[in-house]
Amino acid sequence: MGDYTYHVRREIESNNRWYTGSQFAWVEKESIRRIYEQRFLIFYKIIKREIYIKGKISLLDYGCGDGYWSLVFSRFSDCEVTGVDYNPLRLKRAKANVKNARFIEMDLSNPNDNLGKFNIVFCSQVVEHIKDDVSFLKGIGNYLKKDGVVILGTPNEGSFTHRHIFRKHVLKGSDHIHFYTEKEIRNKIDKAGFVIKDIHREVFFPGHDKLYYKLTSTDFGFKLLELLTILFPSQCSDYYFELKLK
After folding, report:
1. CB of 69 within 8 A of CB of 124?
2. pLDDT digits (tens, 9 = 90+) for 49-105
3. Which residue from 124, 151, 141 is spatially nearest to 192, judged by alpha carbons?
4. Helices (H), 116-241
5. Which of 30, 133, 215, 235 has its C-alpha lying 20 to 30 A from 203's C-alpha?
């Protein structure tokens, strides 16, 4: 049993919510629903475009967790989904949640040459957990078919509001290793051999999680945060990048 496997199973046995909490229940929260609806619009646009250009496509959900996004993507009739994750509990849930996709347990920080090539690699909220993030991103590039697309999502936890107001809480409660600014993650993306074709900055983060979730719980609050993102883009909560190999 590898070190990563031992670590994950230990965290599951200790009922660490970062490893055992239901991701489907998380999305159903009123404070989270609008965020995921907004994300879906981004992903929908990219996937439908790729299907239109290429016909039937293959998508790798790299860090699929409980299979929430795998389920969403599997509903596209011309999208064949493969999900991978290092958490056996989440993979078990994913297999139960998504019947028309395949799932594989693996250490995400070590590329698997047997996975194959994909038109889209979707990697959401994973890279900030990986120590050697540049090598991790290079590994993702190895899974791309010619003219393939990467959808990469990560928190903007190096921003002023996160770093000076919220970061101590994040450091205490999560297993994130990296706390990126936009400049930092752009530099990592460049070093890994990608170009950024598009970027989406999620809603403004006001510096306190309770205030943030209170605002995202209402249409008015969410629209206010969207407006503040336009005014202060460097203080957004998360980034989603569309990438292609150089």
Report:
1. yes
2. 999 999 999 999 999 999 999 999 999 999 999 999 999 999 999 999 999 999 999
3. 141
4. 133-141, 160-161, 167-173, 182-191, 209-216, 219-231
5. 133
Reported as a single tens digit per residue, the pLDDT across 177-217 is: 888 999 999 999 999 999 999 999 999 999 888 899 999 99
Which residue stretches of 84-181 are H helix?
88-97, 133-141, 160-161, 167-173
Comparing CA positions, the residue from 151, 165, 153, 168 lying closest to residue 235 is: 165
- Residue 66 CB partners (closer than 8 Å, separation 6+): 22, 23, 24, 90, 93, 94, 97
Quote the CA–CA distance of 118 and 81 in Å, as a whole number.
Answer: 9
Q: What is the pTM of this model?
A: 0.93
Which of 211, 198, 205, 113 has the alpha carbon at shortest distance from 153? 198
- pLDDT tens digits, residue range 164-181? 665 555 555 567 888 899
For residues 218-232, b (16+ Cβ closer than 10 Å) or e, as one string?
Answer: eeebbebbbebbeee
CA distances, 228 to each of 35, 60, 237 (Å)? 15, 33, 11
For residue 152, list its beta bridge partners: 123, 241
CB–CB of 88/11 below 8 Å? no
In the chain, the amino acid numbered 235 is: Q
Closest to 67 measured CA to CA, from 39, 37, 89: 89
